[in-house]
Design goal:
alpha+beta; 5-stranded mixed sheet; two-stranded antiparallel ribbon; 7 strands
Length: 362
């Protein structure tokens, strides 16, 4: 089984990341905070110090924006995503945001009120926005703030996922800021929602998203998260998310046998065979390029209307093609080396003998 993500274990894993990796996945401020406590300010790379400073500025901007927006929110309006997750970080400023997300049963009305009362203005025209598929209204910009406001009338999920009634989410919501009267999603609901949403948007390929989900899951509890996953209709996807967190963030190797057993239908046939490829390549450095293709295949496999057998054949053909491509590349490299070995030093590739050229120049 996947390791349940405790907050202490998650923070320890973030601190073990390479600095460049933390920056690439928007975890620079958190990495800097962890290493500042361990090693002191002087030991931090300049880029990580800058990330920590940017995180503090971003948090102040976000908190001031919430103070402006909060008086206009109703009892059924929820602050979600970044601003709601930040309270689970060691300090709120360690979780940066690019926008303030608000979930409301009356999106058009709140959108209009924010423009009338605060002077917020749409960042995109209605015409430009109409042709795009979005789960929120056109983002609003407010003078003096770097963050913009996104008003959501529904959650950004795949069509096959369930959309729990907003009244259900509001009833289970919890307090975000007592002084401002703001509320956010229940921790378990928030964790499962973010797993489903980030599957929809990025296929769970950004590590900050995984850290968000892990911290919320740690606070929400295993049983509560399982119940929330059932309510959203994403129980299998939730198990996959836990496997990805366990494998990528916590460093626990997920074997092919575990994957095959966890993603099988009652007849024993593998429902998600490409997850084997994903979970054995996703830890490679970089923005998970090796896993992108597999995750797209898996997204299609979650849809009951897809031809699973055809997808499995396609995945096998792609794997065979990749193996043949590597074989051809290795043959070309060995052939080039054998040819260059027969050439005189003057005709060899400049990259083939850098040491001999340096000795000649000396």
């Amino acid at each position: 089984m996947s390791e349940w993500p405790s907050s202490e274990r998650v923070l320890e894993a973030v601190g073990a990341m390479a600095p460049a990796e933390a920056l690439r996945h928007d975890l620079g401020a958190l990495w800097a905070f962890i290493h500042h406590q361990r090693d002191g300010l002087e030991a931090l790379p300049v880029a990580l110090r800058s990330a920590a400073y940017d995180g503090a500025v971003n948090s102040v901007d976000r908190d001031m924006l919430i103070c402006r927006v909060a008086p206009l929110l109703g009892n059924n309006d929820l602050v979600i995503k970044g601003a709601g997750v930040a309270r689970h970080y060691p300090a709120r400023w360690l979780r940066t945001s690019s926008d303030l997300d608000i979930l409301t049963p009356y999106p058009a009305r709140l959108h209009a009120v924010l423009q009338e009362q605060l002077g917020a203005r749409p960042l995109l025209s209605e015409a430009a926005y109409a042709g795009q598929a979005h789960h929120h209204l056109p983002p609003l910009g407010l003078s003096g703030f770097a963050l913009h406001i996104e008003v959501h009338g529904r959650l950004g999920l795949e069509p096959w996922m369930r959309h729990p009634p907003l009244s259900y989410l509001v009833e289970r919501s919890r307090e975000l800021d007592a002084d401002l009267g703001t509320r956010t999603l229940d921790d378990a609901d928030h964790a499962v929602y973010l797993a489903a949403h980030h599957w929809h948007s990025t296929r769970l390929t950004r590590r900050r998203d995984l850290v968000d989900i892990a911290l919320l899951a740690s606070a929400g509890g295993a049983a509560e998260c399982a119940a929330a996953a059932e309510a959203f209709g994403v129980s299998r996807l939730w198990r996959l998310g836990l496997d990805v967190i366990s494998h990528v963030i916590l460093g626990k190797r997920t074997t092919r046998r575990i994957v095959a057993s966890r993603y099988s239908d009652p007849t024993g046939h593998e429902l998600l065979p490409v997850s084997q490829r994903y979970l054995t390549t996703v830890s490679v450095a970089g923005p998970f390029a090796a896993g992108q293709l597999a995750m797209r295949d898996m997204a299609r496999m979650f849809s009951a209307s897809d031809d699973r057998e055809a997808l499995m054949r396609s995945a096998r053909r792609r794997k065979v093609g990749a193996l043949r491509g590597r074989s051809k590349l290795s043959r070309r490299v060995s052939h080039r080396r054998s040819v260059e070995s027969r050439l005189s030093p003057e005709r060899r590739s400049p990259m083939s003998a850098p040491q001999s050229r340096g000795l000649d120049e000396q």
